[in-house]
Amino acid sequence: MIYKSYIAGLLLRVLLLLAALTGIAWGIVNTSLLFSLIGGGITLIILYDLYRYLIRRFVAIDDFFEAVKYRDFSRWFSEKHGPQDLRNLHRGFNNVNKTIKAINNERQAQFVYLQKILEMVEVGIIAYNLDTGEVLWVNESLLNTLDLPTFKNIGFVEKRRPQLYTELFDTYRTEAVSVNLSLRNEQLKVLISETVFQLEEDAFKLVVLQNIENTLNQNESDAWKKLLSVMTHEIMNSIAPISSLAETLQNHIQNNQQNAELHPLELDDLNAGISSIKKRSEGLMKFAKTYRSLSKVTHLNLETVKVNELFKSISDLMQPSLADKPVALHFKTENPEMAFEIDSYLIEQVLINLILNAIDATQEVEKPKIVVTSSQNSKGRVQIKVRDNGGGIPEEIRESIFIPFFSTKKTGSGIGLSLSKQIMTLHKGKIQLKSDAERGTEFTLQF
Protein backbone atom coordinates (compact mmCIF):
# COMPACT_ATOMS: atom_id res chain seq x y z
CA MET A 1 0.00 0.00 0.00
CA ILE A 2 2.84 2.37 0.88
CA TYR A 3 4.68 1.63 -2.33
CA LYS A 4 1.61 1.87 -4.60
CA SER A 5 0.76 5.43 -3.51
CA TYR A 6 4.44 6.39 -3.54
CA ILE A 7 4.98 5.07 -7.07
CA ALA A 8 1.75 6.70 -8.27
CA GLY A 9 2.90 10.10 -6.96
CA LEU A 10 6.37 9.63 -8.41
CA LEU A 11 4.98 8.54 -11.80
CA LEU A 12 2.67 11.56 -11.96
CA ARG A 13 5.57 13.96 -11.34
CA VAL A 14 7.73 12.22 -13.94
CA LEU A 15 4.95 12.47 -16.52
CA LEU A 16 4.48 16.18 -15.74
CA LEU A 17 8.22 16.70 -16.06
CA LEU A 18 8.22 14.96 -19.46
CA ALA A 19 5.30 17.14 -20.56
CA ALA A 20 7.13 20.32 -19.50
CA LEU A 21 10.30 19.22 -21.27
CA THR A 22 8.22 18.45 -24.36
CA GLY A 23 6.82 21.99 -24.18
CA ILE A 24 10.34 23.43 -24.02
CA ALA A 25 11.37 21.33 -27.03
CA TRP A 26 8.32 22.44 -28.99
CA GLY A 27 9.03 26.08 -28.21
CA ILE A 28 12.64 25.75 -29.35
CA VAL A 29 11.65 23.99 -32.60
CA ASN A 30 9.01 26.60 -33.37
CA THR A 31 11.22 29.48 -32.14
CA SER A 32 8.62 30.47 -29.57
CA LEU A 33 10.62 32.16 -26.80
CA LEU A 34 7.57 32.70 -24.56
CA PHE A 35 6.51 29.08 -24.78
CA SER A 36 10.05 27.94 -24.03
CA LEU A 37 10.30 30.23 -20.98
CA ILE A 38 6.94 29.07 -19.62
CA GLY A 39 7.94 25.45 -20.19
CA GLY A 40 11.29 26.07 -18.48
CA GLY A 41 9.60 27.67 -15.47
CA ILE A 42 7.16 24.79 -15.13
CA THR A 43 10.07 22.33 -15.44
CA LEU A 44 11.93 24.03 -12.58
CA ILE A 45 8.82 23.96 -10.40
CA ILE A 46 8.24 20.26 -11.15
CA LEU A 47 11.92 19.45 -10.52
CA TYR A 48 11.79 21.26 -7.17
CA ASP A 49 8.57 19.44 -6.24
CA LEU A 50 10.08 16.12 -7.32
CA TYR A 51 13.18 16.82 -5.21
CA ARG A 52 11.02 17.63 -2.17
CA TYR A 53 8.87 14.58 -2.82
CA LEU A 54 11.90 12.28 -2.86
CA ILE A 55 13.97 13.92 -0.13
CA ARG A 56 11.05 14.02 2.31
CA ARG A 57 10.81 10.23 2.32
CA PHE A 58 14.56 9.77 2.57
CA VAL A 59 14.69 12.21 5.49
CA ALA A 60 11.99 10.20 7.28
CA ILE A 61 13.89 6.96 6.67
CA ASP A 62 17.15 8.59 7.77
CA ASP A 63 15.49 9.84 10.97
CA PHE A 64 14.23 6.33 11.70
CA PHE A 65 17.65 4.76 11.12
CA GLU A 66 19.24 7.41 13.32
CA ALA A 67 16.79 6.53 16.09
CA VAL A 68 17.61 2.82 15.67
CA LYS A 69 21.35 3.58 15.74
CA TYR A 70 21.03 5.29 19.13
CA ARG A 71 18.32 2.85 20.32
CA ASP A 72 15.82 5.64 20.72
CA PHE A 73 12.62 3.70 20.24
CA SER A 74 10.53 6.35 21.98
CA ARG A 75 10.47 8.41 18.76
CA TRP A 76 6.94 8.86 17.40
CA PHE A 77 6.32 9.61 13.71
CA SER A 78 3.17 11.54 12.80
CA GLU A 79 0.46 9.40 11.24
CA LYS A 80 -2.05 12.25 10.66
CA HIS A 81 -0.12 14.77 8.56
CA GLY A 82 1.44 14.69 5.13
CA PRO A 83 0.76 12.55 2.06
CA GLN A 84 -0.90 9.17 2.52
CA ASP A 85 2.18 7.16 1.57
CA LEU A 86 4.30 9.13 4.07
CA ARG A 87 1.72 8.54 6.79
CA ASN A 88 1.74 4.82 5.99
CA LEU A 89 5.54 4.84 6.19
CA HIS A 90 5.37 6.58 9.58
CA ARG A 91 2.82 4.04 10.75
CA GLY A 92 5.22 1.24 9.82
CA PHE A 93 8.06 2.96 11.71
CA ASN A 94 5.84 3.34 14.79
CA ASN A 95 4.84 -0.35 14.66
CA VAL A 96 8.49 -1.37 14.54
CA ASN A 97 9.30 0.95 17.47
CA LYS A 98 6.40 -0.48 19.47
CA THR A 99 7.52 -4.05 18.78
CA ILE A 100 11.13 -3.37 19.74
CA LYS A 101 10.03 -1.57 22.92
CA ALA A 102 7.85 -4.55 23.82
CA ILE A 103 10.75 -6.96 23.24
CA ASN A 104 13.07 -4.76 25.32
CA ASN A 105 10.50 -4.65 28.12
CA GLU A 106 10.20 -8.43 28.04
CA ARG A 107 13.97 -8.84 28.16
CA GLN A 108 14.15 -6.41 31.05
CA ALA A 109 11.45 -8.40 32.84
CA GLN A 110 13.46 -11.60 32.35
CA PHE A 111 16.50 -9.90 33.84
CA VAL A 112 14.48 -8.70 36.85
CA TYR A 113 13.05 -12.20 37.36
CA LEU A 114 16.52 -13.70 37.22
CA GLN A 115 17.80 -11.10 39.68
CA LYS A 116 15.03 -11.98 42.15
CA ILE A 117 15.80 -15.68 41.79
CA LEU A 118 19.50 -15.20 42.42
CA GLU A 119 18.79 -12.97 45.42
CA MET A 120 16.73 -15.79 46.93
CA VAL A 121 19.61 -18.24 46.62
CA GLU A 122 21.55 -18.36 49.88
CA VAL A 123 24.92 -18.64 48.17
CA GLY A 124 27.24 -15.94 46.88
CA ILE A 125 27.10 -15.53 43.10
CA ILE A 126 29.10 -13.24 40.83
CA ALA A 127 29.37 -13.13 37.03
CA TYR A 128 31.94 -10.93 35.31
CA ASN A 129 33.52 -10.29 31.91
CA LEU A 130 36.76 -12.26 31.56
CA ASP A 131 38.39 -9.63 29.33
CA THR A 132 37.42 -6.36 31.02
CA GLY A 133 36.68 -7.57 34.55
CA GLU A 134 33.38 -5.68 34.47
CA VAL A 135 30.85 -7.22 36.87
CA LEU A 136 27.73 -8.43 35.09
CA TRP A 137 25.90 -9.34 38.31
CA VAL A 138 26.68 -9.93 41.98
CA ASN A 139 24.27 -10.75 44.80
CA GLU A 140 24.19 -9.51 48.37
CA SER A 141 25.09 -12.91 49.79
CA LEU A 142 28.55 -12.79 48.21
CA LEU A 143 29.17 -9.21 49.34
CA ASN A 144 28.10 -10.05 52.89
CA THR A 145 30.17 -13.23 53.05
CA LEU A 146 33.33 -11.50 51.82
CA ASP A 147 32.61 -8.24 53.67
CA LEU A 148 32.87 -6.18 50.49
CA PRO A 149 30.98 -3.07 49.35
CA THR A 150 29.24 -3.04 45.97
CA PHE A 151 31.80 -2.89 43.16
CA LYS A 152 31.58 -2.63 39.36
CA ASN A 153 34.89 -4.24 38.37
CA ILE A 154 36.88 -7.07 39.94
CA GLY A 155 39.93 -4.80 39.73
CA PHE A 156 38.57 -3.21 42.92
CA VAL A 157 39.09 -6.51 44.76
CA GLU A 158 42.57 -6.92 43.24
CA LYS A 159 43.67 -3.55 44.65
CA ARG A 160 41.99 -3.92 48.02
CA ARG A 161 42.50 -7.64 48.75
CA PRO A 162 45.07 -9.22 46.41
CA GLN A 163 45.00 -12.61 48.17
CA LEU A 164 41.21 -12.81 47.96
CA TYR A 165 41.38 -11.79 44.29
CA THR A 166 43.84 -14.61 43.56
CA GLU A 167 41.68 -17.24 45.24
CA LEU A 168 38.37 -16.05 43.85
CA PHE A 169 39.10 -14.68 40.37
CA ASP A 170 42.64 -15.54 39.31
CA THR A 171 42.46 -19.30 39.93
CA TYR A 172 40.56 -21.53 37.54
CA ARG A 173 38.92 -24.66 38.94
CA THR A 174 37.42 -27.48 36.92
CA GLU A 175 35.32 -28.66 39.86
CA ALA A 176 33.98 -27.34 43.15
CA VAL A 177 36.57 -27.21 45.93
CA SER A 178 36.72 -26.14 49.57
CA VAL A 179 38.98 -23.13 50.18
CA ASN A 180 40.07 -21.29 53.32
CA LEU A 181 39.83 -17.52 52.91
CA SER A 182 41.43 -14.98 55.23
CA LEU A 183 38.72 -12.48 56.14
CA ARG A 184 38.48 -10.07 59.07
CA ASN A 185 41.58 -11.59 60.72
CA GLU A 186 40.03 -15.06 60.68
CA GLN A 187 39.84 -18.08 58.41
CA LEU A 188 36.58 -18.69 56.58
CA LYS A 189 36.00 -22.03 54.89
CA VAL A 190 34.00 -21.72 51.68
CA LEU A 191 33.02 -23.95 48.80
CA ILE A 192 33.89 -22.38 45.44
CA SER A 193 32.65 -23.52 42.06
CA GLU A 194 32.89 -21.74 38.75
CA THR A 195 32.07 -22.02 35.09
CA VAL A 196 32.76 -20.00 31.93
CA PHE A 197 29.99 -19.20 29.45
CA GLN A 198 29.71 -17.22 26.22
CA LEU A 199 27.21 -14.47 25.45
CA GLU A 200 27.53 -13.26 21.86
CA GLU A 201 31.21 -12.25 21.49
CA ASP A 202 32.00 -11.87 25.20
CA ALA A 203 33.17 -14.57 27.61
CA PHE A 204 31.93 -14.46 31.19
CA LYS A 205 32.86 -16.33 34.32
CA LEU A 206 30.27 -17.39 36.91
CA VAL A 207 31.64 -17.94 40.41
CA VAL A 208 29.48 -19.45 43.16
CA LEU A 209 30.64 -19.26 46.77
CA GLN A 210 29.06 -21.02 49.76
CA ASN A 211 30.04 -20.40 53.38
CA ILE A 212 30.44 -23.90 54.87
CA GLU A 213 32.36 -22.99 58.01
CA ASN A 214 31.53 -25.38 60.90
CA THR A 215 28.52 -26.77 59.00
CA LEU A 216 29.72 -28.90 56.10
CA ASN A 217 31.51 -32.25 56.22
CA GLN A 218 32.88 -33.96 53.12
CA ASN A 219 29.61 -35.70 52.27
CA GLU A 220 27.71 -32.42 52.51
CA SER A 221 30.39 -30.82 50.34
CA ASP A 222 29.62 -33.35 47.60
CA ALA A 223 25.91 -32.55 47.95
CA TRP A 224 26.58 -28.84 47.45
CA LYS A 225 28.54 -29.61 44.27
CA LYS A 226 25.54 -31.50 42.94
CA LEU A 227 23.18 -28.75 44.06
CA LEU A 228 25.25 -26.15 42.20
CA SER A 229 25.23 -28.31 39.09
CA VAL A 230 21.43 -28.65 39.15
CA MET A 231 20.85 -24.95 39.89
CA THR A 232 23.23 -23.82 37.13
CA HIS A 233 21.61 -26.25 34.72
CA GLU A 234 18.08 -25.05 35.54
CA ILE A 235 18.93 -21.34 35.35
CA MET A 236 20.99 -21.60 32.16
CA ASN A 237 18.30 -23.79 30.58
CA SER A 238 15.88 -20.90 31.16
CA ILE A 239 18.24 -18.13 30.07
CA ALA A 240 19.42 -19.83 26.85
CA PRO A 241 16.02 -20.06 25.07
CA ILE A 242 15.02 -16.59 26.26
CA SER A 243 18.24 -15.09 24.86
CA SER A 244 18.02 -17.10 21.63
CA LEU A 245 14.38 -16.18 21.02
CA ALA A 246 15.02 -12.48 21.71
CA GLU A 247 17.93 -12.55 19.24
CA THR A 248 15.76 -14.22 16.60
CA LEU A 249 13.04 -11.59 16.98
CA GLN A 250 15.62 -8.81 16.81
CA ASN A 251 17.12 -10.25 13.59
CA HIS A 252 13.64 -10.50 12.11
CA ILE A 253 13.02 -6.81 12.77
CA GLN A 254 16.43 -5.78 11.44
CA ASN A 255 15.83 -7.77 8.25
CA ASN A 256 12.48 -6.04 7.86
CA GLN A 257 14.11 -2.65 8.28
CA GLN A 258 16.62 -3.45 5.57
CA ASN A 259 14.15 -4.91 3.07
CA ALA A 260 10.50 -4.95 4.04
CA GLU A 261 9.40 -6.66 0.82
CA LEU A 262 11.66 -9.69 1.25
CA HIS A 263 11.24 -9.83 5.02
CA PRO A 264 7.71 -8.70 5.98
CA LEU A 265 7.10 -8.05 9.68
CA GLU A 266 4.78 -10.76 11.01
CA LEU A 267 3.22 -9.41 14.20
CA ASP A 268 1.67 -12.81 14.98
CA ASP A 269 5.15 -14.37 15.04
CA LEU A 270 6.44 -11.55 17.24
CA ASN A 271 3.51 -12.00 19.61
CA ALA A 272 4.09 -15.75 19.76
CA GLY A 273 7.77 -15.20 20.54
CA ILE A 274 6.99 -12.74 23.31
CA SER A 275 4.41 -15.18 24.75
CA SER A 276 7.08 -17.88 24.80
CA ILE A 277 9.45 -15.60 26.70
CA LYS A 278 6.69 -14.82 29.21
CA LYS A 279 5.91 -18.51 29.70
CA ARG A 280 9.55 -19.37 30.36
CA SER A 281 9.89 -16.49 32.82
CA GLU A 282 6.93 -17.89 34.75
CA GLY A 283 8.86 -21.17 34.89
CA LEU A 284 11.78 -19.29 36.43
CA MET A 285 9.50 -17.83 39.08
CA LYS A 286 8.13 -21.31 39.84
CA PHE A 287 11.71 -22.55 40.21
CA ALA A 288 12.45 -19.73 42.68
CA LYS A 289 9.33 -20.50 44.73
CA THR A 290 10.28 -24.17 44.84
CA TYR A 291 13.73 -23.34 46.19
CA ARG A 292 12.15 -21.00 48.70
CA SER A 293 9.89 -23.74 50.07
CA LEU A 294 12.93 -25.98 50.47
CA SER A 295 14.59 -23.49 52.81
CA LYS A 296 11.55 -22.73 54.99
CA VAL A 297 11.87 -25.69 57.40
CA THR A 298 14.28 -24.48 60.08
CA HIS A 299 12.78 -25.48 63.45
CA LEU A 300 10.55 -28.13 65.05
CA ASN A 301 7.42 -28.14 67.19
CA LEU A 302 8.13 -31.31 69.15
CA GLU A 303 5.46 -33.39 70.93
CA THR A 304 5.18 -36.96 72.16
CA VAL A 305 3.21 -38.99 69.60
CA LYS A 306 2.18 -42.66 69.59
CA VAL A 307 3.14 -44.51 66.43
CA ASN A 308 -0.30 -46.08 65.95
CA GLU A 309 -1.92 -42.61 66.18
CA LEU A 310 0.52 -41.30 63.56
CA PHE A 311 -0.26 -44.25 61.29
CA LYS A 312 -4.02 -43.79 61.69
CA SER A 313 -3.76 -40.12 60.80
CA ILE A 314 -1.77 -40.89 57.65
CA SER A 315 -4.15 -43.73 56.70
CA ASP A 316 -7.11 -41.35 56.95
CA LEU A 317 -5.29 -38.76 54.85
CA MET A 318 -4.35 -41.25 52.14
CA GLN A 319 -7.73 -42.96 51.75
CA PRO A 320 -9.14 -40.44 49.21
CA SER A 321 -5.99 -40.71 47.08
CA LEU A 322 -6.17 -44.52 47.07
CA ALA A 323 -9.93 -44.83 46.52
CA ASP A 324 -9.59 -45.19 42.73
CA LYS A 325 -6.23 -46.99 42.71
CA PRO A 326 -5.57 -50.76 43.04
CA VAL A 327 -2.79 -50.18 45.57
CA ALA A 328 -2.94 -52.03 48.90
CA LEU A 329 -1.60 -49.88 51.76
CA HIS A 330 -0.85 -51.63 55.09
CA PHE A 331 0.38 -50.26 58.42
CA LYS A 332 2.13 -52.52 60.94
CA THR A 333 3.68 -51.83 64.33
CA GLU A 334 5.46 -54.05 66.84
CA ASN A 335 4.04 -52.18 69.81
CA PRO A 336 0.84 -50.09 69.56
CA GLU A 337 1.97 -48.06 72.60
CA MET A 338 5.32 -47.18 71.05
CA ALA A 339 5.82 -43.40 71.22
CA PHE A 340 8.48 -40.91 70.22
CA GLU A 341 9.08 -37.15 70.27
CA ILE A 342 8.59 -35.62 66.84
CA ASP A 343 7.05 -32.75 64.92
CA SER A 344 3.99 -34.71 63.80
CA TYR A 345 3.11 -32.30 60.98
CA LEU A 346 6.54 -32.60 59.37
CA ILE A 347 6.87 -36.36 59.82
CA GLU A 348 3.41 -36.82 58.31
CA GLN A 349 4.66 -34.79 55.37
CA VAL A 350 7.68 -37.09 55.01
CA LEU A 351 5.63 -40.30 55.18
CA ILE A 352 2.96 -39.02 52.78
CA ASN A 353 5.67 -38.04 50.31
CA LEU A 354 7.26 -41.50 50.54
CA ILE A 355 3.89 -43.23 50.12
CA LEU A 356 3.00 -41.10 47.08
CA ASN A 357 6.37 -41.94 45.53
CA ALA A 358 5.69 -45.62 46.23
CA ILE A 359 2.29 -45.36 44.53
CA ASP A 360 3.98 -43.97 41.41
CA ALA A 361 6.63 -46.72 41.57
CA THR A 362 4.01 -49.51 41.61
CA GLN A 363 1.91 -48.36 38.66
CA GLU A 364 3.23 -51.10 36.38
CA VAL A 365 3.02 -53.86 38.99
CA GLU A 366 0.24 -56.47 38.77
CA LYS A 367 -0.56 -56.47 42.52
CA PRO A 368 0.82 -53.18 43.90
CA LYS A 369 1.43 -53.17 47.64
CA ILE A 370 2.89 -50.69 50.11
CA VAL A 371 3.74 -51.62 53.70
CA VAL A 372 4.58 -49.09 56.42
CA THR A 373 6.09 -50.65 59.54
CA SER A 374 7.45 -49.36 62.83
CA SER A 375 9.92 -51.04 65.15
CA GLN A 376 12.74 -50.36 67.59
CA ASN A 377 16.36 -51.06 66.76
CA SER A 378 18.96 -52.61 69.08
CA LYS A 379 19.46 -49.25 70.81
CA GLY A 380 15.74 -48.86 71.51
CA ARG A 381 15.28 -46.09 68.95
CA VAL A 382 12.19 -45.92 66.77
CA GLN A 383 12.50 -46.56 63.05
CA ILE A 384 9.79 -46.48 60.38
CA LYS A 385 10.06 -48.28 57.06
CA VAL A 386 8.08 -47.63 53.87
CA ARG A 387 8.41 -50.56 51.46
CA ASP A 388 6.85 -51.13 48.03
CA ASN A 389 6.99 -53.94 45.49
CA GLY A 390 7.66 -51.69 42.48
CA GLY A 391 10.45 -51.83 39.94
CA GLY A 392 13.05 -50.20 42.18
CA ILE A 393 15.24 -47.15 41.65
CA PRO A 394 17.99 -47.45 39.00
CA GLU A 395 21.43 -47.66 40.58
CA GLU A 396 22.82 -44.80 38.50
CA ILE A 397 20.43 -42.24 40.05
CA ARG A 398 20.27 -43.46 43.65
CA GLU A 399 22.93 -40.99 44.77
CA SER A 400 21.03 -38.13 43.13
CA ILE A 401 17.50 -38.59 44.49
CA PHE A 402 18.13 -36.46 47.61
CA ILE A 403 19.59 -33.56 45.60
CA PRO A 404 17.26 -30.53 45.53
CA PHE A 405 15.37 -30.16 42.20
CA PHE A 406 16.44 -33.59 40.92
CA SER A 407 13.40 -35.45 39.63
CA THR A 408 12.63 -38.24 37.18
CA LYS A 409 8.98 -37.19 36.96
CA LYS A 410 7.80 -34.84 34.21
CA THR A 411 5.69 -32.85 36.69
CA GLY A 412 7.89 -33.31 39.78
CA SER A 413 9.51 -30.37 41.55
CA GLY A 414 12.44 -32.44 42.81
CA ILE A 415 12.24 -31.26 46.43
CA GLY A 416 10.19 -34.03 48.09
CA LEU A 417 13.02 -36.35 49.11
CA SER A 418 15.42 -33.46 49.70
CA LEU A 419 12.88 -31.87 52.04
CA SER A 420 12.32 -35.23 53.76
CA LYS A 421 16.05 -35.56 54.37
CA GLN A 422 16.17 -32.04 55.80
CA ILE A 423 13.27 -32.80 58.16
CA MET A 424 14.95 -35.98 59.38
CA THR A 425 18.22 -34.08 59.94
CA LEU A 426 16.34 -31.57 62.10
CA HIS A 427 15.03 -34.53 64.12
CA LYS A 428 18.68 -35.63 64.56
CA GLY A 429 17.82 -38.69 62.52
CA LYS A 430 18.40 -39.87 58.97
CA ILE A 431 16.70 -41.43 55.99
CA GLN A 432 18.18 -44.47 54.26
CA LEU A 433 17.40 -46.21 50.98
CA LYS A 434 17.45 -49.83 49.84
CA SER A 435 16.26 -50.63 46.34
CA ASP A 436 16.23 -53.66 44.10
CA ALA A 437 14.65 -54.23 40.70
CA GLU A 438 13.05 -57.51 41.91
CA ARG A 439 12.19 -56.68 45.54
CA GLY A 440 11.20 -53.04 45.18
CA THR A 441 12.24 -50.04 47.26
CA GLU A 442 12.47 -49.51 51.02
CA PHE A 443 13.01 -46.17 52.79
CA THR A 444 13.94 -46.26 56.46
CA LEU A 445 13.42 -43.31 58.81
CA GLN A 446 15.73 -43.62 61.81
CA PHE A 447 15.06 -41.35 64.78
Automatic annotation (TrEMBL):
Keyword annotations of the record: ATP-binding, Kinase, Membrane, Nucleotide-binding, Transferase, Transmembrane, Transmembrane helix, Two-component regulatory system
PROSITE patterns assigned: HIS_KIN
CDD domains with a match to the protein in the record: HATPase
Domain Histidine kinase positions: 230-447
Reactions that this protein is recorded to catalyse: ATP + protein L-histidine = ADP + protein N-phospho-L-histidine
Enzyme Commission number, as recorded: 2.7.13.3
Signal sequence, renumbered to the chain: none
InterPro entries per UniProt: HATPase_C_sf (IPR036890), HATPase_dom (IPR003594), His_kinase_dom (IPR005467), Sig_transdc_His_kin-like_C (IPR004358)
Coiled-coil intervals: none
Transmembrane stretches, start-end: 32-51
Tree of life domain: Bacteria
One Pfam family hit: HATPase_c
Protein name as annotated: histidine kinase
